[in-house]
Specification:
Helix 4 (88-95) links the parallel strand 1 and strand 2. Strands 1, 2, 3, 4, 5, 6, 7 and 8 form an 8-stranded mixed beta sheet that branches. Helix 1 (18-25) packs across helix 2 (33-45) and helix 2 (33-45) runs antiparallel to helix 9 (198-210). This protein has 10 helices and 8 strands. The chain has 270 residues and is α/β, with parallel strands linked by helices. It has helices at residues 18-25, 33-45, 49-69, 88-95, 108-112, 114-117, 136-143, 170-178, 198-210, 220-224; strands spanning 74-78, 100-105, 125-130, 154-158, 186-192, 231-232, 238-239, 262-268. The two termini are 30 Å apart.
Length: 270
């Protein structure tokens, strides 16, 4: 499933895009000079940004695996980014081959790589839709083609909401995405914070904003507000490296993640 209204011809190489900058931080090749330049600006301000990207990715793997092990069989991943193996569907279908996964992103370059996201197990299914999180209704409508909303869905907004400014009402967006989901559905979030070094993160945010991305880091309290009305999965809201590290698969070069200013949590819809 793809959105025919978007194509690779829509790729704007004249300004940086957060998904391509993230790809650069992970050591990927699917980025352009303008993305690399902006990413290097961020690196000059916060040298641990590549470790942060890996720490975030590792959290996504652990959270997805845990939810699959606890019986979730449907996943909606918004802000997918450029595919980096293992992708979410590979993690969850490794636990439950029948799992269904819908990916959504608003960068046309991700659409170009959608084929990599659609290699499902024979028992399960994966789909991709080009969609903007600021239009949650459109994403939900497209996801219904693949997912059964009468059954629980694991909604993933990993490293996405710090790219949504307050004026776009991120809490409303989360509520609208959760509203149609069945009881027992889960929300997985990760979010950069300026709690430990506000001056540096003000400067990092400015790099993104100058490139046209409405970045905004948030405090522990502000991040926790996204989970109002939900039941937090143990250990609650913590820094990424402290969330079930025993579920991870340590890789060389991932050290230092315990100091990364990235809040995470998983919560269940009652």
């Amino acid at each position: 499933m793809t959105d025919a209204g978007r194509s690779v011809d829509d790729i704007d190489t004249g300004k940086p895009h957060s998904a391509r900058m993230y790809d650069y931080f992970l050591g990927g090749k699917d980025n352009y000079p303008v993305d690399a330049a902006a990413a290097e600006q961020v690196t000059s301000l916060f040298p641990a940004v590549s470790t942060m990207a890996r720490t975030n990715r590792s959290f996504m793997h652990r959270a997805s695996r845990l939810l699959a092990e606890r019986g979730l069989r449907q996943f909606l991943d918004i802000g997918t980014g450029i595919p980096t193996e293992p992708n979410l569907h590979q993690i969850v279908q490794g636990v439950a081959p029948e799992a269904r996964v819908v990916y959504a992103d608003n960068d046309p370059i991700v659409l170009r790589h959608a084929e990599a996201l659609l290699h499902s197990t024979g028992e399960g299914k994966t789909a991709y839709v080009a969609g903007d999180v600021r239009e949650p209704g459109k994403i939900i409508a497209a996801a219904r083609e693949t997912l059964d909303f009468s059954r629980p869905v694991a909604l993933s907004l990993v490293a996405l909401l710090h790219l949504v400014a307050d004026e776009d009402e991120p809490r409303r967006i989360v509520r609208e995405l959760l509203e149609p989901l069945a009881s027992g559905s889960c929300l997985t979030l990760s979010h950069a914070t300026g709690d430990f070094d506000p001056e540096t993160w003000e400067r990092v945010v400015e790099v993104y904003r100058k490139g046209g991305t409405a970045a905004q880091v948030r405090s522990l309290g502000e991040f926790s507000e996204f989970f109002e009305g939900l039941e937090l999965v143990d250990p609650g809201v913590v820094l990424a490296a402290r969330w079930h590290p025993e579920l991870g698969e340590p890789r060389e070069g991932d050290g230092g993640g315990e100091e990364i200013p990235l809040y995470v949590a998983v919560a269940r819809k009652p």
